[in-house]
Every structure is written in C-alpha cells, then in structure tokens.
Design brief:
Elements: E1 4-6, H1 8-19, H2 24-33, H3 49-58, H4 60-69, E2 71-73, H5 78-89, E3 98-99, E4 103-109, H6 111-120, E5 125-133, E6 136-143
Helix pairs in contact: 1-5, 3-4
Length: 147
C-alpha cells in the first residue's frame, strides 16, 4: 500500500500517541470508540482530539492506512519540522542540532530513522546523509525550493 498524504496536525497527533508507547492497533481502537477523553493522556490535540476523531469518522480508511502503512506530510514549515523531530525522535534544537535559517544541521540519526524521516517529510525538505560511522549518520535537513 502507498503512504497516505496527511495534514501536519494529524501527523503530529499520531506521533503524540505513538510517543507514549501506544501500538497502532490500540490507536485505531481508541479512534473507533470515539471518546475524546480517552486521548487526554497524550496531551493537547491539534486543535483538539475531537477533530482527530471526526476526521477518522469521515476518512476511516485513509487514517487507518496512514497509521498502519505510513504517511507523507503535505507541507511542512521549519517550526513544524522541529516539532516533529522533538515528538518523533526526542531531538531538541541547540542540543541535538542547529538551525541555520534554510537548513537544520548536526542531527545524528540511525539508518532506519533517516529512512522514516525521508518517507514522511514533505517534498519541500531534503534529507542529506552527510557522513556515517557505524550506525550513526550525520544528517542535514535542507529547505528545497520546488519549481
């Protein structure tokens, strides 16, 4: 199956739930139940958890496919990218990488993290594997202008 295209807020909410250790099938079960209070342990939704549940109800197959098979974000700002790096990989600006206006540099990721990032990141960003030593890859994420 191909990856679903998702808006940023839905991708962030999926990753907020995953960060807690919740399995994909459990996430789908919570969405099927449709009780926004069940999502309280995962923090604030964007804009709220009921919106996520409503999206599931109207796009069930799309969201289940995104949760199970992966997603690509339709568009990603730099600040949104930094938010996803924090939620998904626990990477913090000025500690794990530096922001240089049109690119982020100094990230150290595993090969599987790089592949994951390349699969979900929007087309306006390019992931560059600068050098690798064993399992550690030094990565730069660069704003890519599309014509």
């Amino acid at each position: 199956m191909s990856r679903e295209k998702l808006a940023l807020n839905h991708a962030i909410m999926i990753e907020m739930i995953r960060r807690s250790g919740t399995a994909d099938f459990e996430m789908i079960h919570l969405l099927k139940n449709g009780n926004s209070k069940d999502f309280t342990p995962y923090g604030e939704g964007i804009p709220d958890w009921q919106t996520f549940i409503d999206f599931y109800r109207t796009h069930t197959e799309k969201l289940e496919n995104a949760i199970i098979n992966g997603y690509t974000i339709t568009f990603l700002t730099k600040n949104a990218l930094k938010t996803l790096l924090k939620i998904k990989y626990d990477l913090v600006e000025n500690i794990d990488y530096q922001d240089f206006d049109f690119y982020l540099d100094g990230l150290v990721l595993t090969k599987s993290q790089i592949e994951d990032l390349q699969n979900f990141i929007s087309l306006n960003w390019k992931v560059i594997d600068k050098q690798s030593a064993n399992e550690k890859h030094h990565v730069k994420i660069e704003l890519h202008y599309m014509e």
